[in-house]
Amino acid sequence: MSFKIICCDGGGIRGLLTARLIEDLDNKFQIIKRANGFAGTSTGGLLALGMAHGVPISDMIDLYRHKGAEIFKIHSLNLQYACQARMHDSQTSKLIEDLDSQFQVTQKTGGFAGMSTGGILSQGMAKNISASKMIDLYRNECGQFFEPNGLLSQGTSRTKGPSAAKDKRLGRPGAIGSRYYSDGLKKILKAFFSDARLSGSERFIAINAAQLWNEKAQSWLPCTFSNLQENPFRDISMVDAALATSAAPTYFPPHHIQANGTDFGYFVDGGVFANNPVMTALTEALSQECVSNLSDIHMLSLGTGDTSDGITVADFDDNSPLSWGVDWWLWPLRWGERNTIPQASLLMLILETTGKTAEFQAKQILGDNYLRANFMLKNPFDIDDWQNIERLDAEVDNYLQTPEWESTCNRVKHLWT
Fold first, then answer.
1. Do residues 341 and 314 lie in contact, with contact meaning Cβ atoms separated by under 8 Å?
2. Closest residue by Cα to residue 22 from 199, 46, 245
3. Strand pairing partners for 221?
4. H/E/C letters for each residue in 343-365?
5. Is the model more confident about 96 or about 134?
6. If residue 81 lies in a helix (H) or strand (E), which one and from where to where?
7. What is the CB-side half-sphere exposure of residue 413 using CA atoms within 13 A?
8. How far apart are the first and last CA of the chain?
9. What is residue 164's predicted lDDT score, i.e. its pLDDT?
10. Which of 38, 197, 219, 403 gets the highest tally of CB atoms within 10 A of its CB?
11. Which residues touch 144 (CB under 8 Å, ≥6 apart)?
């Protein structure tokens, strides 16, 4: 007897593409009802959990179309800290001015001490620079204090093209902190899942996340959350599973999971080791004896759109390989002379190459029982580009009319019905 698993890749807001393909296949062949299990990573984890819990796929599509601003809620704490620091520096100077006008504290003080900006104030007072002049310094000359480090941008402007308008002098969130809050996503997930736990699902679930510290292993570990009997995470909530699997480093904060008195620690996006969840789902199902034979497993794997992202020889002609340090590999905006070097390149490299590796492995192991549905996007589409979701929707509309999709549907009909 066949054991059918729907597997959904990670890819942020591009999960709309996955959801649209599932919707079309479900309308034609009732694939969700016929599935024995669901697996997912990151945004694909949200879809897998939703289908397992009975959330209509149309509701998941609406999530991508209309809730992008709530999901990708800019984390402005970094900018607030920077502004507060300037404000406090000015307030300190103002306090000194007030005290000096009443009690002549700077004239009566025998010495001055300070650290960081306080050191600047101390040096100024020691040289008899008035507090009012130092206040003017903070009010009017801050732009000169916080000029970008020339060493980091020498030889190239990393903010050419449309991304430049998004850049901030003090560092766009994602460079010095998580780019987005997770509370908007959490609110949406609570509405979908309430307090439901993985163990409450009647169908197989496999969701990937990376545990940042495992006490027993004394290390970080790749993890697959499952509702199967021997899985240590089977009693965590669906909301926790969804927040953990989608906590992409630099985009969302790591997620802390506690369940039934056990502190599992913090987790990040499972895409760092399995952006395509087919192999972890296959391993979990076999290890827990969901099936007696490998040949019983039928797997439908859906992507979030292939892209032409990468770093070309021309990019290295413009930017010497020796200049690629942490700042360039994790720069949070598209950059380069042609604005084509992906944002957070190292993370994108990991997500996409691990996904393609799993796709190749599953095809070799399962043969014709493995079916992949995906297509190449006309232009790169960033995983948080919710503002342009209509463009992605239009690309899906076009793809659903192609002979390639018709061929995929025929294969699904043969494999799934």
1. no
2. 46
3. 211
4. CCHHHHHHHHHHHHHHHHHHHHH
5. 134
6. helix 77-103
7. 9
8. 13
9. 34
10. 38
11. none
Q: Taking Cα atoms as reference points, which of 268, 248, 288 lies closest to residue 382?
A: 248
Contacts of residue 285, defined as CB under 8 A and 6 or more positions apart, other chains included, come to 3, 5, 37, 204, 206, 291, 297
- The answer to whether the CB of 28 falls within 8 A of the CB of 149 is no
Give the tokens for residue 189: 């997930």
* Residue 279 and residue 224 in contact, taking contact as beta carbons nearer than 8 Å: no
- Residue with the two structure tokens 């600047």: 120
Question: From its phi and psi, is residue 221 left (phi > 0), alpha (psi between -120 and 50) or beta?
Answer: beta
What are the φ/ψ torsions at residue 269 (nearest 5 degrees)?
-45, 130
pTM: 0.77
CB atoms within 10 A of CB 40: 34
- What would the two tokens of residue 185 be? 């996503």
pLDDT at 114 > cutoff 60: no
Alpha-carbon radius of gyration of the chain: 26
Token couple for 224? 């697959």
